[in-house]
Design brief:
This is Riboflavin biosynthesis protein. GO terms for molecular function: ATP binding; FMN adenylyltransferase activity; riboflavin kinase activity. One of its GO terms (biological process) is riboflavin biosynthetic process. It contains ten helices and 14 strands. The protein is α/β, with parallel strands linked by helices and 312 residues long. The chain folds into two domains: 154 residues, Rossmann fold, CATH 3.40.50.620; 123 residues, Riboflavin kinase-like (Elongation Factor Tu (Ef-tu), domain 3, Beta Barrel). The chain has a six-stranded parallel β-sheet with strand order 1-4-3-2-5-6, with helices on both faces. β11 and β12 form a beta hairpin. α7 runs antiparallel to α8. The protein is elongated. The mean pLDDT is 92.
């Protein structure tokens, strides 16, 4: 997959794709249905399958101090899209210049002149241009005038209503990772490099791979059964484990992070990119009367996690 981060200077091989447009946060089943529809159009036209997205997320651009809401980082999103067979990811910088384009200018300067897209696919609720003034009817009109096709994909509904990033955030905030998985079509994953910690886990007999969750939507704090993918290095592979998401109340006030104990693993992962998938919420964080009580609870957590993960 090729990633293009500028619509003004684009090589011929990166122009002319059929592309779905959106933020694709989480790359959930609704997003995947839009990508599948775009794939069929791209195949029919004999052009690359593309995605046009934006970085940072427009919501983040307009409200930088608002609580973190993203389900995945740009890197994790790109990794997921590549797995789905996307050939061109147009990850355009969302800045003052782009946000000031009128709907017509966006269609002309970005879609037609910059990327020369042959066809675009959007959701039924798609809005674009300065102040989100453009809608799907405007896009159809511009496409007819400017020479690119437009397809509007219907919103996807699951057993529990509309599949959306908002509904997935709610499920995660309430400690329902399996409900999130049903909407995502994959386990919700938190990706990042393993960072140094205070090594208390090692002293307790539970060495952990620690990861920052800065900039990401925070699921319910507590202990989870998890699936771990080590993405690079000599230990690359898939593992089972248990993870604590939170502030570690036994040890004072701490910044929230994710600490993952990988079952039956020995090795150094510092600086290694990993992906941790949340499977089951086991319990909330707690402050114990003693380290012995904490260790006993960790033993129980890991035993339960092993059983749950073995049943997958």
């Amino acid at each position: 997959m090729r990633i293009i981060r500028d619509y003004s200077f684009v090589t011929d091989q990166d122009r002319g794709a059929a592309a779905a447009i959106g933020n694709f946060d989480g790359v959930h089943l609704g997003h995947q249905s839009v990508i599948d529809l775009t794939r069929d159009i791209a195949s029919e036209k004999g052009v690359p399958l593309g995605i046009m997205s934006f970085e940072p997320h427009p919501r983040q651009f307009f409200a930088p101090k608002a609580p973190a809401f993203r389900l995945m980082s740009a890197e994790a999103r790109a990794h997921r899209l590549e797995k789905l067979g996307v050939e061109r990811l147009y990850e355009l910088p969302f800045n003052a210049t782009l946000s000031a384009l009128s709907p017509e200018d966006f269609a002309a300067k970005v879609i037609r002149d910059g990327l020369a897209l042959t066809h675009v696919v959007v959701g039924a609720d798609f809005c674009f241009g300065q102040g989100r003034k453009g809608d799907v009817e405007d896009l159809k009109r511009f496409g007819a005038d400017m020479g690119f096709g437009v397809t509007v994909a219907e919103l996807l509904h699951g057993d529990k209503g509309e599949v959306s990033s908002t509904a997935i955030r709610e499920a995660l905030a309430e400690g329902r990772p399996r409900d999130a998985q049903a909407m995502l079509g994959h386990w919700h994953r938190m990706d990042g490099e393993v960072i140094g910690g205070d090594q208390r886990g090692r002293e307790l007999g539970y060495p952990t791979a620690n990861m920052s969750i800065d900039g990401l939507h925070q699921p319910k704090m507590g202990v989870y059964a998890v699936l771990i993918d080590v993405l690079d290095g000599p230990h690359k592979g898939s593992y089972h484990g248990a993870a604590s998401l939170g502030v570690r109340p036994m040890f004072g006030e701490n910044k929230p992070n994710l600490e993952t104990f990988i079952f039956d693993f020995k090795g150094d992962l510092y600086g290694t990119p990993i992906s941790v998938g949340l499977v089951d919420y086991l319990r909330p964080e707690a402050k114990f009367d003693s380290l012995e009580a904490l260790i006993a609870q960790m033993d129980a957590d890991c035993a339960k996690a092993r059983d749950l993960l073995a049943a997958l």
